Amino acid sequence: MIKDIVQQVEAKMKKVLESVNREFSEVRTGRAHPGLIEGMHIDYYGTPTLLKQIAAISVPDPKTIVIQPWDASAILEIEKTISNSKLGVSPFNDGKIVRISIPPLSKERRMDLAKMVKDMAENGRVALRTIRRDANERIKKVQSDGHIPEDDSFKAQDTVQKLTDKYIKDIDQILEGKNKELTEFN
Q1: At what angle do helices 150-183 and 107-144 cross, to 10 degrees?
Q2: What is the pLDDT of residues 155-169, one digit of tens each?
Q3: Residue 106 to residues 29, 120, 180, 184, 186: CA-CA distances in angstroms?
Q4: Which three-class secondary structure state does DSSP give residue 60?
Q5: In which element (H, E) is residue 176 found?
Q6: Distances (CA, A) of 83 to 18, 86, 126, 147
Q7: What are phi and psi of 99, to 5 degrees?
Q8: 55/69 Cα distance (integer angstroms)
Q9: Which of 35, 69, 180, 182 has the lowest CB atom count within 10 Å?
Q10: Is residue 19 predicted with pLDDT exceeding 70?
């Protein structure tokens, strides 16, 4: 029973870490990479479809992203979606491909992005602590119902705390790396 709780906690914490990673990958750092746009949903024949499912995305140089849709009729919708996104870039097309030129970030924008990723990381930490709290409550309930002794309850709570510490450390490392990316172009 306790093993199940601990396994569920670890699975949930992994999902939080993946979510934080995905959010971080969508933050523009002045360098082109497919993660900036591949998660965007394009209105493709009335159906929201991931951009990476309807086009090839490549990065020919550090300042350019090239999108080559498999269906040329989707170009205008791709262009519109990117223009309306929070990326702050202007795409242009030549009828066959869409190019996005990634401009350098201003100092103010870098500071805003650094604050934004710090908030994302904090939201991830809060989610991890919430998972820990819920797990500890479940463990205490199992103990109070008489299914496990007090020693096992304390061991399980300690295990949950160690998992929490590990995943918070992982988020902090990701945040540190993202902050380096944001400041390396100054």
Answers
A1: 170
A2: 999 999 999 999 999
A3: 11, 21, 15, 12, 9
A4: strand
A5: helix 150-183
A6: 27, 8, 32, 57
A7: -110, 140
A8: 4
A9: 180
A10: yes
